[in-house]
Write a structure and sequence with these properties.
By secondary structure, this protein is an alpha/beta fold. The protein contains 6 helices and 5 strands. The strands form 2 sheets. It has a 3-stranded parallel β-sheet, with helices on both faces. Strands 4-5 form a two-stranded parallel sheet. The longest helix is centred in the middle third of the chain and has 17 residues. The model has no long low-confidence stretch (mean pLDDT 96). Bound molecules: 4'-phosphopantetheine (PNS). 4'-phosphopantetheine binds next to strand 1 and helix 4.
């Protein structure tokens, strides 16, 4: 069985992430989308909230599982016996950072974790969780960036009732 992990912060999940999830789920038999529990970052949504949002947003994709992890991706992948990590590339500016992480993961896993990149669909190339949060924090329109239920939760976090 061909399995892959799509790791990320997903704070919160956007249409850009969902595009990558759908396409990776068509290529692999099983895709585990895993939320990083990063103690050094202060996310807007808790790991539990992010997992719940991903579960809701992917409920129609039967071969997609949602999980969370802490620590190194290579250790988590080894524990799950998965050898492929998926990452989305939006623009050239993502490339340097992603290449370095992919090479680090390959090196320190002894060649057991490879990264496969999917290029983000053009309509989502500008999207990031950070910009979505920024727009939502000023009560701006994020309807083309995240599913409605995610938008509602975002506005709620920033004290807007819409
Ligand atoms: O959505 P993000 O924040 O761009 O995702 C980054 C992520 C989660 C893929 C990356 O930070 C990660 O895998 N972190 C776990 C720690 C690790 O294994 N780092 C790579 C070696 S430095």
């Amino acid at each position: 069985m061909k399995a892959a992990i799509y790791p990320g912060s997903f704070d919160p999940v956007t249409f850009g992430h969902l595009d990558i999830i759908k396409r990776a789920a068509e290529i692999f038999d099983e895709l585990t989308v895993s939320v990083l529990n990063n103690k050094t970052k202060t996310p807007l949504f808790s790991v539990e909230e992010r997992v719940k949002m991903l579960e809701e947003a992917t409920k129609n994709l039967p071969n997609v599982k949602i999980d969370s992890f802490s620590g190194l991706l290579i250790d988590y992948a080894k524990e799950k016996n998965i050898r492929v990590a998926i990452r989305g590339l939006r623009a050239f500016t993502d490339f340097e950072y992603e290449l370095q992480i992919a090479q680090t993961n390959r090196k320190f896993s002894g060649g057991n974790l490879d990264t496969m990149f999917l290029t983000t669909s053009l309509e989502y190339a500008y999207l990031s969780s950070s910009t979505v949060k920024e727009v939502a924090s000023f009560n701006g329109d994020i309807s083309e960036s995240v599913p409605d239920f995610v938008g509602k939760l975002l506005y709620k976090k920033y004290g807007y009732d819409r």
